[in-house]
Each structure stands twice: as C-alpha cells, then as structure tokens.
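Structure ticket #2291
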Amino acid sequence: MPIRTNRGRAAVYRRLWGWPLRSPRHLVATIVLLIAVVTTIGIVADKLVGPRSSATSGPTTSSSRTSSSGSGNQVGVLPSTTGTTSPLPTKAPSPTPAPTSAPVSPDAQLVAESWIEAWLDHPDGVTNAKWLAGLKPWTSDELLPTLQSVDPANVPKEIKSPVKASRSTTDSVDFEADLETGKLVLTVAKLPEGWRVHKYSRVG
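Resolution: structure written out below.
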C-alpha cells in the first residue's frame, strides 16, 4: 500500500538513512555498496566516452599526417627558407691595387716646370685673376678654386733649384723644388684632359 502522508514518508526516510548507523556491519556494507556503484558508473562512462573520442581524434590525426607529409619536410631536415634575404658574400672584395711605378713622363715634367714658372710670375700689383689666368692651362679644375684665395704678393718670385721628380707612377708624379723660404711640392696627375697640377704644398 503506498504511503500518502508526509509523516509516513519521513519515517521511511529516517529508516533508510539510519540503517547504516545501526551497526558496524551495516556501515561497512553501505560503504562497499557505494564503492561498487561508483566503480560501475565509471566503467560504463569510459565505455561510452571512449569510442566517441577515438572517432573524433581519428580524422584529426590522419589530416595532421597528411599535412605533414604534404609539406615535404623530413625529420631532422630544416625547412627551406623563402624570402628576400640576400646571400652572404663568398669572399672579401679584392683590395685596390697599388699604383704601379713608372718612369717620369716628359709631359708631366713639362707641366710641372710650366706651372712653377707661371706661379712665380707675379709682378707688383698683379691681380689674382690675372695670376690665375697664367696658371689655368696647367692646373686641374679642382685646384683652381683653392688658388683664388691666394694673394700673389705672398708667393716667392724665384726658386733655388731645378724641379725634380721624387715619386712617379703611371697616373701621377710628385715634384719638388727649393724656394727661398722652404720647399714646394707638386702632384701632377694624369686626367682626361691631360697632365695637370692637382695638388701643391709649401714645406718650411
């Protein structure tokens, strides 16, 4: 006969909850029963979840294998890099060859002597422009602007020894001449327009 009152249900619940506490044997039996129920639920859950997880992971594994095999990379082999990096130079650039020694060119000797003759030719009161006009045929275009700042009155009027070469190569010749106040050093360079005085300095 079913229980229809709340008091009757409460009495039944008290009997159920109180049964394990009646004796140690009841308590042990209750614990064993609970362990068996939990173990059974775990086994059933593993059987239900296991096939689903394996079915889900199967295509993923095969796709990953396909992608890895399709890339063409092998174990232990670095992938080839494709970028805009420039290759490293295979060797250092060769050094610039040293100037080759050569006999003094007669044209270079003539330019040096003519330049010094024009350099010393500055009568009293001569202007810088007129003095430069005499030097221009023997002077490089790079040296002329430097000479525009020279006052001809400060330039010696004679040399004490002939012009002589101190160093000669295929592209340039260094000349020296003794002045009243020291030494004049010229560098005559071989340019497209010919031999020209490219640099000069006074020593002493």
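Closing remark: Helices lie at 6-18, 24-71, 106-120, 128-135, 144-147.
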